[in-house]
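Support reply, case 0932

Customer input (verbatim):
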Amino acid sequence: MNFWDYLGARHEQLLTDAYQHASAVFQCMVVATLIGVLIGVVTYRSDWAGNLATTATSTILTVPSLAMIGLLIPIVGLGVPPTVISLTLYGLLPIVRNAIVGLRGVDPSLVDAARGIGMSRVMRLLRVELPLAWPPILTGIRVSTQMLMGIAAIAAYASGPGLGNEIFRGIASLGSRNALNQVLAGTLGIIVLALLFDAAYVLLGRLTISRGIRA
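Our regenerated output:
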């Protein structure tokens, strides 16, 4: 069976795996973005706090993904929980780092002007600082998403959802007639999903970043 015949015969399962893969990455990115931006907001005013946040999230990223999932299995079991926890943790570093850089890069004169017209600290953050810091934050989200697309494939080790199951099945059956087709289908599926997500982020940037900031 050639690759195209394999895709035709397995398209329903492949689409299901692709949907589960994309859904897991998307949901973990939402959680990682909320946590990462919050950490950035709390720490960007202090050099030591910002460095601590960046160092902590960098340390998480140095843990091999297979080891991370393996360590989580005895605690939370197999399936979705270790997948969600590990992906969320791995997605933090680019978002935290870019949130801190973006917030520190806001022109102080703009913040002073907002203070001068009576804006509270929360209002300055929500209406001035975060919108101006949004471009680097979005860049961090894009980087995290690309990383998580690949890392999510390892979730199959813990019976997690996604296209990693197709890759692991192919590796486990090396020598069979469809082993290469399975690995290739899972790998190409992840690449396509990564490109689609990145295109969506480009569109989101065009819709949410003003032309003045882009310039």
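We compared this against your earlier run and they match. Two observations from our side: The chain has a mean pLDDT of 90. The chain has ten helices and no strands. Please reopen the case if you see a mismatch on your end.
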